[in-house]
Specification:
alpha/beta, four-stranded parallel β-sheet, 14 helices, 3 domains, Rossmann fold, about 10% strand
C-alpha cells in the first residue's frame, strides 16, 4: 500500500516564501504556457491571418489550461519529451472537446490550428533544451546572497540541501550555528559549523551576511526572541523555519488576518482566485459533459423506469464542503435505497444490484446525474469521492485526518479513483489508502491535474475495472 511520508521536503512547501524563489522557479511556471501562446500568435501572423478576439480567446484558454508548467529545466530529455507530449496532448484534447461541444471550431482556420498543434511541442522541446543555459547565464549576472542557518537540525539541513541542489538559486550558504557539539549533529554537514549561537551577531556583522534562517524549535522561544533583538542591528533578512514544517501540512501558507500574521497549517487549495478558476473549470466541463451525454442519460432513465419499479434517481445524504450534509444524485442501480444509520457497501455478486445496474456501475454511467450536483454548487467535477453519512461517522473515528478531505467539495471522480482506490473498502487499509490519495490531491492541486484525472476517468470507464461491482 502506498503511504505518505510524515515529513515533507521543502520543495513541497511552495506556499511559504523564503526569499529564494529563484529565476528558474518563476520561469518554469509560465514557460510552457507562454510558448503555447507565442506559437499560436506567431503561426497566425505568419499565415497572414488577423489576430482577433477568437485568437486571443484561444490563447488565454491555452495558457490557463497549461499553467503552471511543471516540467523541470533539469529533467532528462526522454522525461521532458514524455511530459511535453502528455501535457500538450491533454490541452489539445480539452480544447477540441470544448470546440466541438460549442461549435467554436468554425471560428478558426483549420490549417492554422493544425500547424499550431504540431509546432507548439516542437518549440517547447527546443526551448527546454536551451533554457537552462540561458537561465544560468542570466543568473550569473545577479548578485548572489550569502546566508547562514541557525540550527543544524533536520529541517535546517533539509533547507540547505534543497537550495544547494538548485543550480539557479541565488543563495549560497556560508555556515551553520548550533549550541550542540559537532559529534551530535551527524556526519557530512553541508557547510561548515562556525560556532555557537551566541557568536551569530559578530559573524553576521563581519562577513556581509544577507540572509539568516532560524531553524530552532518553537520551544526555544525565549532564545529566539533574544536573538532577534540582537540581530536588529544588522541589515540581514531574517527567516524563521519553525519545526511545524516537520508535520504533514495541507496547503500551508502565511497570511494576514485582522492585521496579524497567521500561519495556515491546514487550508483548502481553492482560496481566492484559485476558487474562481476551479468553479469556472467545473462549469465548463459540466456543460460540455451534459451536452454530450444528454441522449445517453435520457435512454438510461427510460431503461431504468421500464425494468425496475420506483424512482429513476437514487438520492443519498453525504458530506460535502466543510462536512455539511448534501444530497447526491445517481442513477438507481439497486433494488433498495439505503440512506440510514447503517448503509451496506456494494459487494461482489451483490443481489441488490440489478442486471442493468451492474452495467451502469461498471461503466460509471450511474454517476452522470452528479453533473447536476455540480451545477448546483454542491459538488465539483474532481475531488474526493463523497461517502455515505453513516460511513463518514464510522471512518472519522478510525482514520486520522479523515475529515480533512472535506476541506474541498466532493467530486464525481478523484485522484484516488484513477489510481485504483475505488470500489468496496472491506478493510480499513483500503480506506486509508483512499484517504492518502485524497489528501495528496489537496496538497498538489492544479487545473492540469484536474484535467488529467478527467481524461483518465473517461479512459478507465471504457475498461473493465475488477474493483467495481
Amino acid at each position: 500500500m502506498a503511504t505518505l511520508p510524515t515529513t515533507r521536503p521543502f520543495s513541497a512547501l511552495a506556499p511559504f516564501r523564503t526569499g529564494n524563489t529563484g529565476l528558474g522557479a518563476v520561469a518554469q511556471s509560465a514557460f510552457d504556457p507562454a510558448i503555447a501562446v507565442a506559437t499560436l500568435l506567431a503561426v497566425t501572423v505568419i499565415s497572414g491571418l488577423p489576430v482577433g478576439p477568437a485568437e486571443w480567446g484561444l490563447a488565454l484558454l491555452a495558457f490557463v489550461l497549461s499553467y503552471p508548467g511543471d516540467i523541470s529545466f533539469r529533467a532528462r530529455l526522454p522525461g521532458q519529451l514524455r511530459r511535453i507530449a502528455a501535457n500538450w496532448g491533454l490541452v489539445v484534447g480539452v480544447l477540441l472537446a470544448v470546440g466541438v461541444a460549442f461549435g467554436a471550431l468554425r471560428l478558426y482556420d483549420i490549417e492554422q490550428l493544425a500547424v499550431w498543434v504540431v509546432a507548439t511541442p516542437i518549440v517547447q522541446v527546443l526551448a527546454h533544451w536551451a533554457g537552462p543555459t540561458v537561465l544560468s547565464r542570466v543568473s550569473t549576472l545577479r548578485r548572489h546572497n550569502t546566508a547562514i542557518v541557525i540550527g543544524a537540525n533536520a529541517h535546517g539541513r533539509m533547507l540547505v540541501r534543497s537550495i544547494q541542489n538548485d543550480p539557479l538559486s541565488q543563495t549560497r550558504f556560508a555556515a551553520y550555528f548550533d549550541d550542540r557539539e559537532t559529534d551530535r549533529l551527524g556526519p557530512d554537514l553541508e557547510v561548515p559549523m562556525a560556532g555557537r549561537i551566541d557568536a551569530v551577531v559578530d559573524f553576521v556583522r563581519g562577513n556581509h551576511i544577507d540572509q539568516i534562517y532560524i531553524a530552532l524549535p518553537m520551544a526555544s522561544q525565549p532564545r529566539i526572541l533574544k536573538l532577534l533583538d540582537q540581530l536588529r542591528d544588522t541589515t540581514a533578512s531574517i527567516y524563521f523555519l519553525p519545526d511545524i514544517f516537520l508535520y504533514d501540512l495541507i496547503q500551508a501558507r502565511v497570511d494576514i488576518i485582522g492585521g496579524m500574521p497567521v500561519m495556515a497549517v491546514c487550508e483548502t487549495p481553492f482560496f481566492g482566485t484559485t476558487g474562481i478558476i476551479k468553479r469556472i473549470a467545473d462549469l465548463a466541463i459540466t456543460v460540455t459533459a451534459l451536452v454530450l451525454t444528454a441522449p445517453l442519460m435520457v435512454a438510461v432513465a427510460i431503461a431504468i423506469k421500464t425494468t425496475m419499479p420506483g424512482p429513476v434517481l437514487f438520492k443519498q445524504r453525504r458530506y460535502g464542503l466543510d462536512g455539511r450534509e448534501i444530497t447526491v444524485w445517481k442513477f438507481r442501480t439497486m433494488k433498495v435505497q439505503e440512506d440510514g444509520a447503517d448503509v451496506k457497501q456494494a459487494t461482489k455478486d451483490d443481489d441488490r444490484v440489478t442486471q442493468l445496474g451492474r452495467l451502469l456501475r461498471r461503466t460509471s454511467i450511474d454517476e452522470l446525474p452528479q453533473f447536476f450536483n455540480v451545477l448546483q454548487g454542491r459538488m465539483s467535477v474532481v475531488g474526493p469521492r463523497p461517502h455515505a453519512v453513516a460511513h463518514n461517522e464510522m471512518y472519522r473515528k478510525l482514520i486520522k485526518g479523515y475529515m480533512i478531505r472535506h476541506k474541498v467539495k466532493p467530486g464525481i471522480t478523484g485522484w484516488a479513483q484513477v489510481n485504483g482506490a475505488r470500489g468496496e473498502t472491506d478493510t480499513i487499509d483500503k480506506m486509508k489508502r483512499r484517504i492518502e490519495f485524497d489528501l495528496e490531491y489537496l496538497r498538489s492541486w492544479s487545473l492540469r491535474l484536474d484535467l488529467q484525472i478527467v481524461v483518465r476517468t473517461v479512459v478507465q470507464a471504457l475498461r473493465r475495472d475488477p474493483n467495481v461491482y
